[in-house]
């Protein structure tokens, strides 16, 4: 059964906005009495019956609510955005399917895109959550200055890593992590992190890590990091 998303679900009955009402009533041709599944992106799965399939103001009644707690581990990916936003949209879609919790975009020395519009990324994220039947919606943070981010005391309890291209950086991420932890992984732009940025991260408690023996594109590296941490925690 298809999963739908509505951020604000309060009480036993809720009404969809015009866009979602039209999608449910006209596009999908759902009828009064039909059963549909909704999530609020905060862990809850709602089984609902359609009380009114008005294409402008569809009303639903909740008949069952199931809450799924968050995983014991937490994956935070911090990445420099690529110049081509299609590649970032692809990555956000795929890491959502695999499973992650939070993403922050970094303004680095070799950044290719210093400004970001998050609307399309958020839509891709929501769509991927619905497609992969996830009830927890990951967090997308605005772009932030690299130096400010790596010195943030909020990450002191995380297992922190920086992935970069270096033949001497041979210890793979999966061999440096332990299950059921909070992880923060830094991924650089196409031109990689600058030597100064790498040194600064290491001085602030980040461990160098490898994501494999081959050079990866930025969005591929992000996906590999998230997938690796999921493998570690789902064995």
From TrEMBL:
It is found in: Cytoplasm. Residues 16-62 form the Ribosomal RNA small subunit methyltransferase E PUA-like domain. The keyword Cytoplasm applies. One of its GO terms (molecular function) is rRNA (uridine-N3-)-methyltransferase activity. GO terms for biological process: rRNA base methylation. Residues 72-229 form the Ribosomal RNA small subunit methyltransferase E methyltransferase domain. It catalyses: uridine(1498) in 16S rRNA + S-adenosyl-L-methionine = N(3)-methyluridine(1498) in 16S rRNA + S-adenosyl-L-homocysteine + H(+). GO terms for cellular component: cytoplasm. It comes from the Bacteria. Pfam families: Methyltrans_RNA (PF04452), PUA_4 (PF20260). Keywords: Cytoplasm, Methyltransferase, rRNA processing, S-adenosyl-L-methionine, Transferase. The keyword Nucleus does not apply. Its EC number is 2.1.1.193. Coiled coil: none annotated. Its main location: cytoplasm. Belongs to the RNA methyltransferase RsmE family. Specifically methylates the N3 position of the uracil ring of uridine 1498 (m3U1498) in 16S rRNA. Acts on the fully assembled 30S ribosomal subunit. NCBIfam families: PRK11713.6-1, RsmE family RNA methyltransferase. This is Ribosomal RNA small subunit methyltransferase E.
């Amino acid at each position: 059964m298809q999963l739908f998303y509505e951020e604000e679900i309060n009480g036993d009955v809720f009404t969809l906005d015009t866009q979602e009402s039209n999608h449910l009533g006209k596009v999908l041709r759902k009828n009064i009495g039909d059963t549909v599944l909704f999530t609020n992106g905060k862990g809850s799965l709602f089984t609902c019956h359609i009380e009114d399939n008005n294409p402008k103001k569809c009303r639903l009644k909740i008949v069952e609510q199931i809450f799924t707690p968050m995983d014991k581990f937490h994956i935070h990916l911090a990445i420099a955005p690529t110049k081509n936003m299609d590649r970032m949209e692809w990555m956000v879609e795929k890491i959502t399917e695999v499973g992650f919790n939070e993403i922050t975009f970094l303004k680095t020395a070799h950044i290719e895109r210093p400004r970001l519009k998050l609307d399309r990324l958020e839509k891709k994220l929501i769509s991927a959550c619905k497609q992969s039947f996830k009830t927890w919606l990951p967090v997308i943070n605005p772009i932030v200055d690299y130096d400010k981010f790596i010195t943030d005391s909020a990450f002191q309890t995380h297992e922190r890593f920086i992935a970069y291209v270096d033949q001497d950086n041979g210890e793979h991420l999966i061999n440096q992590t332990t299950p059921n932890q909070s992880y923060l992984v830094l991924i650089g732009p196409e031109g990689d992190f600058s030597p100064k940025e790498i040194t600064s991260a290491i001085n602030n408690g980040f461990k160098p890590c490898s994501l494999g023996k081959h050079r990866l594109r930025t969005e591929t590296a992000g996906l590999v990091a998230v997938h690796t941490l999921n493998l570690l925690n789902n064995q």
